[in-house]
UniProtKB/TrEMBL annotation, chain A:
SUPFAM superfamilies: Multiheme cytochromes. Keywords: Signal. InterPro entries: Cyt_c7-like, Multihaem_cyt_sf, Nanowire_3heme. The keyword Signal applies. Residues 52-129, 202-262 form the Cytochrome c7-like domain. It comes from the Bacteria. Gene3D superfamilies: Cytochrome C3. The keyword Signal applies. Residues 1-20 form the signal peptide. This is Cytochrome c7-like domain-containing protein.
TrEMBL record, chain B:
This is Uncharacterized protein. It comes from Geomesophilobacter sediminis. Residues 1-22 form the signal peptide. Keywords: Signal. It comes from the Bacteria.
Length: 266, 102
């Protein structure tokens, strides 16, 4: 009985933190905006609108690992400092958006160019977006309709979508990715929450390694402390550290308490 | 049906991406040094040290590459080498714990 009160209280505190986060800094993103990154280190200086990258468009085809380990995109907005020249040489966005890669019904549009016609500019604005377009919102809802639902984030349960085979993720690009031996992952373990009455933390090393690869987490995000000792506070996680590097920005957000705080993995 | 189509399209996509970057010697050396990150826990201390050494050599050889290649590969090498170092340290910690238990 007492235990459940404590849990309830913690949930309220958590909701408060979440609200304060969302309410003061920025409003909660809409489902199609969750995971959208605006890149503007150079664009506006050079007279182009900022480039916009949607995670939902890409994560239905590729693993996080492919982009963030093999292609080398950083894990905070703007940190990669992508230049038009990099894209034109076939790196970063230009790894795929090179005007040659076959995709679906045709070739994937190319990224930046030095010189361009008015006609070419129509391709530029796929990324260098002038304003938000309804077509893009519609595309999101069309896609989301066929996917398993969830309350937060994109409103899509990405993990289930993958399990159900609704999306199939590419983890390897020839000429870019390293040919790996078959994965022998770490033993799975669960972190134990230090607060009594709070359900245990679930964290699957196995699943996360398939999505992200070891080097994305170690040592940049998790330097490695003793298992079982006090580790991370929820305030830090909400602040975008540790699990919060991904959860809250691209993976399901921290408002979804139960998805992490429940029975341990065996 | 459409799913199959997309999978097929993807295989084609991968083939098309191949020629652009496949030849680079940097890539080959990077592969040799960093193909084992996901299996790092199963490497011996000697193997880890050797791979770390390879990473340092590779970093030096990047100096003569152009700016983009340098930027991309420095980041990739950092991630790979730092993971090997992390695993070395974790192994040392585990061993210490093991000895203390005896």
């Amino acid at each position: 009985m007492k235990k459940s009160y404590l849990v309830l209280l913690l949930l309220l505190v958590g909701a408060g933190m979440a609200w304060a986060q969302g309410g003061m800094k920025k409003k909660k993103p809409l489902p199609y905006e969750f995971g959208t990154v605006t890149l503007n280190n150079y664009s506006e200086h050079a007279g182009m609108p900022p480039a916009v990258f949607d995670h939902w468009v890409h994560r239905k085809h590729f693993t996080c690992r492919l982009c963030h380990v093999d292609i080398g995109f950083g894990m905070t907005a703007g940190s990669t400092k992508i230049k038009a020249a990099d894209n034109m040489k076939g790196y970063y966005c230009g790894t795929c958006h090179n005007g040659q890669s076959e995709f679906g019904k045709g070739k994937l549009f190319a990224s930046c160019a030095k010189e361009y016609t008015r006609e070419d500019y129509k391709v530029c604005v796929n990324c260098h977006r002038v304003d938000r377009s309804e077509a893009r919102e519609d595309a999101f809802y069309d896609f989301a309709q066929g996917m398993p639902r969830e309350t937060f984030g994109n409103g899509i349960n990405w993990e289930k979508a993958e399990e159900m085979g609704k999306i199939k993720l590419t983890d390897y690009l020839e000429g870019v990715s390293v040919k790996k031996a078959k994965l022998k992952t770490q033993q799975d373990f669960s972190l134990t929450s230090k607060v009594e009455g709070m359900p245990d933390i679930i964290f699957s090393h196995k699943k996360h390694t398939v999505w992200s690869g070891c080097e994305l987490c170690h040592p940049d995000i998790f330097v490695g402390v003793k298992k079982g000792a006090t580790k991370y506070s929820m305030v830090e996680i909400f602040d975008g550290k540790y699990c919060g590097v991904c959860h809250g920005k691209v993976a399901f957000p921290n408002t979804d308490c139960q998805r992490c705080h429940s029975a341990p993995v065996q | 049906m459409t799913i199959r189509f997309f999978i097929a399209a993807f295989i084609v996509l991968c083939l098309f991406l191949a020629p652009a970057l496949a030849e680079s010697p940097i890539k080959a050396e990077f592969d040799a040094a960093c193909a084992k990150t996901d299996d790092a826990m199963n490497l011996s201390v000697a193997e880890l040290n050797e791979l770390i050494e390879r990473c340092s050599r590779l970093r030096k050889s990047l100096e003569k590459e152009d700016e983009t290649v340098r930027k991309v590969y420095l980041k990739r090498i950092d991630m790979c080498e730092n993971l090997y170092r992390f695993v070395l340290e974790a192994k040392a910690r585990q061993q210490k714990k093991g000895e203390a238990a005896k």
